[in-house]
Structure formats: structure tokens, C-alpha cells
Write a structure and sequence with these properties.
This protein has helices at residues 3-15, 32-43, 58-67, 86-95, 97-103, and strands spanning 18-22, 50-53, 75-78, 81-84. The protein contains 5 helices and 4 strands; from the N terminus they run H-E-H-E-H-E-E-H-H. The chain is 50% helix and 16% strand. The protein is globular, with a radius of gyration of 13 Å.
């Protein structure tokens, strides 16, 4: 992965409190996992969600997988830290952990 892509991802992750790299947008998710991730964040009351549509940028789509060393999309970042994909988000939500992380 190029340093440029790494820096772009890093800047996105660090300049927004909640960032979701997903397929599609919050209004029009392009896969079930991305849609579920958006619904979980809405259920947690997230109002300032920055989404990045990986389908619009192949470099970001591949780069984000290397950035977090995580093979799948969507990927959630909160306060610059990688949280996980939709399965981890669901587990954390059901345990009440995601709500705590987002409200902290």
C-alpha cells in the first residue's frame, strides 16, 4: 500500500470521532453488513457519523484492509481506534459496550 493512501486513511480516522468504512453510504448501503453497521450506530444515537464509501476508491478499499490488518468491510473507528466489523459491532452493542465506547 502506498504511503499516500495510508496517510489519507489515517487523516480520515483521526479527524472524525466516528468513522465507518463501508460499501455504499449511510443513506444507501450497498451490502447487508454495511447496512447493519449503520443501523447499530443509529441505535447507539450516533449523530456525527463519517462514512467512507470504499466502492468509490479502489485504493482506499484495499488500503483499509491493510491499515487495520482486518480483511473485511465495514470497519468502524472510534476516536482514531479500530473497533471491528459488523459482527464485533453487534456483539459489543448487545453487551452494551459499544454504547459506552461511543458516549465516552
Amino acid at each position: 500500500m502506498t504511503t499516500d493512501v495510508q496517510q489519507r486513511i489515517d487523516a480520515l480516522v483521526k479527524s472524525h470521532p466516528v468513522v465507518l468504512f463501508m460499501k455504499g453510504s449511510a443513506q444507501f448501503p450497498m451490502c447487508g453488513f454495511s447496512g447493519r453497521a449503520v443501523q447499530i450506530l443509529k441505535a447507539c444515537g450516533v449523530s456525527e457519523l463519517k462514512t467512507v464509501n470504499v466502492l468509490e476508491d479502489e485504493a482506499i478499499r484495499q488500503g483499509i484492509k491493510e491499515y487495520a490488518n482486518w480483511p473485511t468491510i465495514p470497519q468502524l473507528y472510534v476516536k482514531g481506534e479500530f473497533v471491528g466489523g459488523s459482527d464485533i459491532m453487534m456483539e459489543m452493542y448487545q453487551a452494551g459496550e459499544l454504547q459506552q465506547l461511543l458516549s465516552a
